Structures are given as structure tokens and as C-alpha cells.
Amino acid sequence: MRLPRGAERPIRVFINGVEQRDGEGYSIHGAEIVFSRPIIKERVSRARWIVMLIGLFGSYEPNETIDIHYRHGGETRVLEDAPVLPD
Q1: Longest CA–CA separation in the chain, Å
Q2: Owning domain of residue 23
Q3: I need a surface site. Which of 38, 63, 66, 72 has the fewest CB within 10 A?
Q4: Which of 43, 7, 56, 48 is nearest to 68 (CA)?
Q5: Helix (H) or strand (E) holding 18
Q6: How far, in Å, CA of 36 to CA of 34, rounded?
Q7: pLDDT for 53-71, tens place per residue?
Q8: For residue 4, which of 59, 46, 67 has the smallest C-alpha distance?
Q9: What is the pTM of this model?
Q10: Cα→Cα distances 9→21, 24, 28, 70, 79, Å
């Protein structure tokens, strides 16, 4: 995944609310965060999205959320449920 433009250290990475350690769960290469394992993001088809919207049933597929805490312009910012780039 790409870091937000202008992101400065310290950068803290959370997967499903659990803080990861730089060098173990992920590493930073330039402007990208590279994870040590695949991150599972749910893929919801248009039909499934519609039936969830009208309340017929929910979604129970695995889905990991990534939150990034970083500094920008002297203040701490948070990117919630950050998008993951395909391999």
C-alpha cells in the first residue's frame, strides 16, 4: 500500500486494531508499506452489495482493516481502512 503524500515518521501500522512492528509485520520501502503476509480484503460483488443494502443478509467473508498513523505538517493523522495494492 502507498503511504499518503507527505507522510512523515513515526509511522504506526495497525491490522484489525493490533499494532504491527516495523521489520516483522511490515516494512517501509520508499513511499510504500510492504506487508510480510497477504492482507485479506473482502471482495463484494454488486449483487451481494445490493442484498446487503436491502438487509436480506450480511457479509461474513474475511476482511482485514489497515489503519496508518503518521505525521504530516507537525500533526498526527490517521488513514483508516487503507486500500491495499494488488500483488
Answers
A1: 46
A2: 8-79
A3: 38
A4: 7
A5: strand 18-19
A6: 7
A7: 677 666 566 779 999 999 9
A8: 67
A9: 0.77
A10: 14, 17, 11, 6, 14
- In the chain, the number of structural domains is 1
Percent of the chain with pLDDT over 70: 80
3-state secondary structure 19-84: ECCECCCEEEECCEEEECCCCCCCCCCHHHHHHHHCCCCCCCCCCCCEEEEEEECCEEEEECCCCC
Q: Is residue 86 part of a domain?
A: no
Overall residue count recorded for the chain in this entry: 87
Task: Answer yes or no: is 84 within a domain.
Answer: no
Alpha-carbon distance 69 to 19, whole Å?
10
Q: Residue 26's CB: how many other CB atoms inside 10 A?
A: 21
- In a domain, residue 85? The reply is no
